[in-house]
Amino acid sequence: MNFVTLFLAKFTWLDWTGLIWFMICWAGYERIVDRGWRGRITLLEETHRLRLGWAKQMLVRENRIVDAALVGNLVNSVSFYANTSIYIIAGLFATLGALDRFIETAAELPFAHAISREALELKLLMLIAVFVVAYFKFTWSLREFNVLSIIMGAVPPKESDPEELELFAQRTAAVNTCAGDDFNRGIRAYYFGMAILAWMITPSLFMIATTLIFIVLARREFDSEVLRALRVQSQIKL
Q: Taking Cα atoms as reference points, which of 195, 179, 169 lies closest to residue 141?
């Protein structure tokens, strides 16, 4: 029996329903955030405006120690999550070697259902895959922040042509936003990884957890207090 056949045979129809719903929510959320939702302003767009303002302020500053410190703080945050992802992946691989104890512990929960060892192995492998995605996002974000550092080192003199300065500010903000977006995608993988943990208990809880995570993330992106605060700031400037 090959891996594909095993994958198909060990999951129930409820498992498949939950898995499809999980993929729809994760991929759908990515599309909604990237394209916006019915013209609504997102936290992503507001932070890009702030990054553009940061880039323009950086161009007129004589001393850019503050800018370097800010980028260094961002790099440290991304590095922390990248390292943490490695530890999580290693821990999950270690769990594969202790599945019997894991199954016994899960079976003691009052709302858990019986699950085969093979099915649990597949779910753990999928959870590992989610954190591998997070690791790749964090490391790519780290490289993008390194590119941002190089760009900051190539800032033209403030006496340069205004069009050149504006173009440089746009480029700097764009790279900063790309790095921030990939960092957010890595964090998002952490959130959806929590939903797969619920799948270890029951598929129904898996779907509920996926839905709740989608709602929480959408609310933070489209209707959070920090977004309203940024909108007020933007309106004051206008």
A: 179
pTM equals 0.84
- Kindly tell me the number of DSSP H helices and DSSP E strands found in the chain: 9, 0
DSSP track, 188-203: HHHHHHHHHHHHTT-H
Tell me the pLDDT tens digit for each residue of 153-169. 888 887 888 888 899 99
Q: Report pLDDT digits (tens) over 109-158.
A: 655 565 667 778 888 889 999 999 999 999 999 999 999 999 988 888 87
Separation in Å, CA 214 to CA 29, 126, 137, 183: 7, 19, 19, 18
* CA torsion angle 195 179 33 135 (round to 10): -20
Dihedral sign (CA 18, 23, 28, 34)? positive
Cβ atoms of 206 and 196 within 8 Å: the answer is: yes
Measured CA distances, 225 to 35, 42, 43, 228 (Å): 21, 12, 10, 5
Distance between CA atoms of residues 70 and 66, nearest Å: 6
The residue behind tokens 């690791």 is 135
Mapping DSSP to helix (H, G, I), strand (E, B) and coil, where does residue 42 land? coil
Whole-angstrom Cα distance, residue 166 to residue 169?
Answer: 5
